[in-house]
Amino acid sequence: MSLQTIDDREVRPADRLQNATIARLPFADALRDAHPEAIYHHQGTTYEVAELDLDRGQALLESTQTSEYTQALRDK
Fold first, then answer.
1. How many other C-beta atoms are found inside a 10 Å radius of the C-beta of residue 11?
2. What whole-number distance in Å separates Cα of residue 10 and Cα of residue 8?
3. What's the pTM value of the predicted model, to 2 decimals?
4. C-alpha count within 13 angstroms, C-beta hemisphere, residue 68
5. 67: closest CA among 49, 41, 35?
6. Computed over its alpha carbons, how large is the radius of gyration of the chain?
């Protein structure tokens, strides 16, 4: 069993302006992809993560126009 699948919590990325959840991320993925200031891409729209609230299981996103992206560093 993978240690990444032990935690069944989810984080819901939400468009801050529309107050609408756009996806559901496993907790570990949210830590990697939805931290504050990360660039998050979803269905052709680019967002910047404004806030990550792990207690509420929500990441608040703001639509942005940028060609930048976030890539997590991995070290084994």
1. 23
2. 7
3. 0.81
4. 9
5. 41
6. 13
* Residue 49 burial (C-beta neighbours within 10 Å; 0-12, 13-18, 19+): buried
- Side chain identity, residue 19: N
Mind giving me the DSSP string for 19-72? Answer: TEE---EEHHHHHHHSSTT-EEEETTEEEEEEEEETTTTEEEEEE---S-----
**Whole-number Å distance between alpha carbons of 65 and 76:** 33
Q: What is the DSSP letter of 13?
A: E
Amino acid at position 15, single letter: D
13-69 tens-digit pLDDT:
999 999 899 999 999 899 999 999 999 999 999 999 999 999 999 999 999 999 888
